[in-house]
């Protein structure tokens, strides 16, 4: 392992802690077969984070247990890898604001 890899992993970990991630998830760990209504290509496109550069917003909606939080954590991790700042906020917190 190179020193740069360790530095990048430390940066990602620190940013995840600052962003208040409840846990770590990777996009590769998501079971797309369990959610056939999801367009895997669209999720992979979101992982490129081009939507951030264009000033876009992503809102994941659906019933409990469908993988929304997993996808949100994975997309945020990808954003951190690409040097974007992120913060995790639940819908319950948004309603209180």
Description:
- 48% of the residues lie in helices and 0% in strands.
- The protein contains 5 helices and no strands.
- α1 (3-18) packs across α4.
- The longest helix is centred in the N-terminal third of the chain and has 16 residues, at 3-18.
Strand content: under 5%
Mean pLDDT across all residues, rounded? 80
Q: Radius of gyration, rounded?
A: 14 Å
Structural class: mainly alpha
Topology:
Layout: H1 3-18, H2 40-46, H3 50-53, H4 68-81, H5 91-96
Brief summary:
The chain has 97 residues and is mainly α.
Task: Provide key terms for this protein.
97 residues, mainly alpha, 0% strand, globular
């Amino acid at each position: 392992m190179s020193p740069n890899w360790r530095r990048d992993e430390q940066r990602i970990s620190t940013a995840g802690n600052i962003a208040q991630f409840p846990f770590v998830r990777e996009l590769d760990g998501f079971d797309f077969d369990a959610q056939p209504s999801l367009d895997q290509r669209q999720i992979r496109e979101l992982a490129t984070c081009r939507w951030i550069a264009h000033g876009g917003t992503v809102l994941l909606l659906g019933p409990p247990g469908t993988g929304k939080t997993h996808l949100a954590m994975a997309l945020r991790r990808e954003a951190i890898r690409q040097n974007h700042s992120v913060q995790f906020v639940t819908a319950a917190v948004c309603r209180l604001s």
